[in-house]
Amino acid sequence: MRPIIGMITVGQSPRVDVVPDMIEILGPGVDIRERGALDGLSREEIAALAPSPGDELLITRLADGTSVFVAKRHMVERVQARVSELESSGVGMSALLCTGAFPRFQARRPLVEPQEVLLGLLRGLTWEGRLGILTPSVPHVPQTEARWRAAGFDPLVVPLSPYQEENPAALAAAGAALRGGQAGLVVMDCIGFRRKTRDMLQRDLGVPVLVANLLVARVLAELCGL
């Protein structure tokens, strides 16, 4: 039987910006079922989930290609509902399409959380220089720095929106900041970052650059025995 994999975004499905790159790694022999925490909501309903002062921010993509900020506290229950829905539909495993740090979700089948995968990999690596972190916006910088420091790292956090990553000036500025801060390894800390941006940064910086959605795809492939 073909493996059935669920993918849950905190925005709206389908994630046509990242899932095709993941399928290139998984191959054609899998069935993908996507769900989004914001699926079926109107613009007004989504606006009600916006962050208030002091909230932890998430940025995500809507079905029309635009991006929105939402408060993480509004997303936990909605993501849990999508995990349960996908498991009831028959998926063999699921992946969260968000690199944020979440409370442990309830799952009866394997659930891949990108943040935990990134942490596990980095704790098994040694590199020269600082850990560079690309975060999706300027408002994300303090919370991203705090999250990685709490995990035991000394991060150099640089903003770059995955939804504006094709802007040559923005990409050049991010690369210059990472180079100037002597980053020896870079994590693209948002599921929306793509392979082509990784490739450009890696050529520019000459250091390893990790893109979260591809790493998750490789973990899923291993779980499927592919």
Key terms for this structure?
single chain, about 230 residues, alpha/beta, 4-stranded parallel β-sheet, 8 helices, about 40% helix
Provide structural commentary.
The protein is globular, with a radius of gyration of 17 Å. The strands form 3 sheets. Strands 2-1-5-6 form a 4-stranded parallel β-sheet. Strands 8-7-9-10 form a 4-stranded parallel β-sheet, sandwiched between helices. The chain has helices at 19-26, 43-47, 72-89, 114-123, 141-150, 168-180, 195-205, 212-224, and strands spanning 4-9, 31-36, 57-61, 67-71, 93-97, 111-112, 130-135, 155-159, 183-188, 209-211. The two termini are 13 Å apart. It is of the alpha/beta class. The protein is 39% helix and 22% strand. Strand 9, helix 7 and strand 10 (209-211) form a beta-alpha-beta unit. It is built from 8 helices and 10 strands.
List the helices and strands and how they pair.
Layout: E1 4-9, H1 19-26, E2 31-36, H2 43-47, E3 57-61, E4 67-71, H3 72-89, E5 93-97, E6 111-112, H4 114-123, E7 130-135, H5 141-150, E8 155-159, H6 168-180, E9 183-188, H7 195-205, E10 209-211, H8 212-224
Parallel strand pairs: 1-2, 1-5, 5-6, 7-8, 7-9, 9-10
Antiparallel strand pairs: 3-4
